[in-house]
Amino acid sequence: MSGRLPEAPVHRPLSLQRWENVAFVHWRYPAATLRPLVPAGLEVQELDGSAWIGFVPFRLARLRAPGLPALPGWSTFAELNLRTYVSDGEHDGVLFLRVLCARRLVVAAFRLGLGLPYVHTPGRVETSGDATSYEATGTRAHVVVGAWQEPDALVTSLTGRWSAFTSHLGRLWRVPVEHPPWPLHRARLDRLTTDILADVGLPPPDDLPLVHWSPGVDARLGGPLPAAR
Fold this sequence. Notes:
mainly beta; Acetoacetate decarboxylase-like
């Protein structure tokens, strides 16, 4: 289930990577608005009385297979995912609605291998003082980072997700994830321009976002497993 610690260790990872300068920007949405975007077999999770959309830009670093070194100059790049939070009845997880990624080979691997909604687009992540800026085609975001914060139950559930779901080749799959607990800071979304919400068919959010930032974690991704349903 969701939480601060992983559900289970990933003993045989297919991919090792680090997620750096991660912004978590969350908006409330009615569950009925998200339901058409979620495959059969998954339930839209409601937390604190609503469903949620997460807008999560970050720098992916040191991407590599176990036992192999990261390729200098290639294995670090910008990525941004738009996601919602779901369950297959046994595992809580994320469902990616769109992923913007700056590496064509990564996009092809995840689209063809897992059916994930990856799109190639150039991007960059820059830090200056207490602020981090993210840029991709059609999207610019500027986040001002505040003090470290002990996450409450809602934030822990939104960020502590140990499965990613995908529908591929007529089946529902779950990719297990393991990483240390997120070190989270309060943050403020200073500027945002994006068309990613409209691109997946979502209306603009009604409320101000819930915003957090993390310096990052090292992650282990396992191979896909059949989902519970």
